[in-house]
Design goal:
The chain is mainly beta. The chain has one helix and 20 strands.
Amino acid sequence: MKHSISKYYLIAIVLLTFAACSKSPVNPNSDPLAGLTKVAEGYADGAATKVALYTKGTTLYTGYSKFYIALFDSITGQRVENAKLNLTPIMNMGTMSHSAPFENPESENSINHLFPCSVTFTMPSGSGSWTLQIKVLNNTTDKEGLIMIPLTITEPVLSKQKSFTAQHNGSKYFISLIEPSTPKIGINDFEIAIYKKTSMMSWPADSSLSVTITPEMPSMGHGSPNNINPVHVGKGHYKGKVNFTMTGLWRINLDFMSGTAVADTTQYFDIEF
């Protein structure tokens, strides 16, 4: 009798464990487009592929913009889940054109039916017009094509894009604030991306600088403790922590060094919540 009870007890544990493990953190029926706004859609000529461009929010601002691309077979309407995408943002200013920093999708396989990527817009529309060129290689059909999407870029009230000419080498660097996107009282993720302009069409990610942050609240005359300086984590992205002790307007001062040489000590981002 004792062995029977132990046997049933063991079976119950196994069943409960299986039930717990079988719960997936991702709902396979969830909408991959939930919380996203369609920016534009069209066809990549030659690739027989429909391209839909999505982002969070309804307005595109200067600075770092995350995009999500959905692909569909232009004949069957079926989703295209395997493709190689190459972005080229172009600012046409009439007498001249230039590109901007961008990040192509990391994988040729979609993630939850989407291809995440990003563009860092270095200036607003007005002085010229932005176009996002997307080259699509449909790996299923082995067909390649190009779509050109016009975009309107707005300057936000509080800038999330800074630039400086470095003191130590004379190079032009562009800094984009990524996090905190929804600041709160307490410890927040802090993330910036750094790019170095090497030509009008080349803006590679930079990992050569070290960054020190000093938050302050100008109206109150105080800073905050327990901040963690951002360090490079890959592809020009630097991550750290910033502590906001109360609501209001905060200024995050940034010092950039290249080894022992000063690159710049004049940049800052204002964050208000």
